[in-house]
Amino acid sequence: MSDSSPQLDDQRTDAMQALVDAVMDRVGDSLRDIWVLDRHAQALLYMRDDVAARTTTVDAQRYLDNERYGFITRATYNRLHYATLRYTHRGFDTWELFRTFLDAADGTTSAGVVIGLDADGTCYDFDALTDTVHAVGDEHSVAALTPATDEPP
User: Fold this and answer.
1) For residues 129 and 22, what is the distance between their CA atoms, to the nearest angstrom?
2) pLDDT, one tens digit for every residue, the chain (153 residues)
3) Entry's InterPro entries (predicted)?
4) CB contact at 8 A, 32 and 46
5) Whole-angstrom Cα distance, residue 96 to residue 119?
């Protein structure tokens, strides 16, 4: 049984396209890929053609399971520090990874957003990128940014 209603699927389509558009507006042609995930599933929203060609042998599920662990680690960081963890950034030799999480105001839904960017010497404003992602969640709802899944909530 799917947790998706037709109405939520329409909201997901609108919200996910809005997320892609907003991130593209923020970072331009440096955008490599965008994934959304929850505790059980993930969805690819955008992947540039050259990145898709280079990642045909990459196990995305395994990779995103590692990113999904952020649902746990951010709670740990938030308990350990006086400030809230807003995003994670990792630099690789050819690309950079950005990850942030969104939480519904009522605490019932959380979504992760994972974005790949070119490592081209650009000094990305990750705080502004976080604000951009969160603004889409505020406008469309966090639930609309979660992948459709048959897993229990």
Assistant:
1) 9
2) 334 445 556 667 899 999 999 999 999 999 999 999 999 999 999 999 999 999 888 888 888 988 998 888 888 888 898 888 999 999 999 999 999 999 998 988 999 999 999 998 888 999 999 999 999 999 999 999 999 775 544
3) DUF7522
4) no
5) 6
Which candidate, 135, 134, 129, 94, places its Cα nearest to that of 115? 129
Please count the other Cβ atoms lying within 10 Å of the Cβ belonging to residue 101.
23
Domain coordinates in residue numbering, the chain: 6-145
pTM for this entry: 0.88
Q: Can you read off the two tokens belonging to residue 8?
A: 């939520």
Using only the alpha carbons of the chain, give its radius of gyration. Answer: 15
| Correct CATH for 6-145 of 3.30.70, 3.30.450, 3.40.50, 1.10.260 | 3.30.450
Helix (H/G/I), strand (E/B), else coil: 145: helix
Read off the amino acid at residue 87. Answer: Y
What six digits make up the tokens of 70?
A: 């952020």
CB atoms near residue 27 (< 10 Å):
20
CB 120 within 8 A of CB 126: no
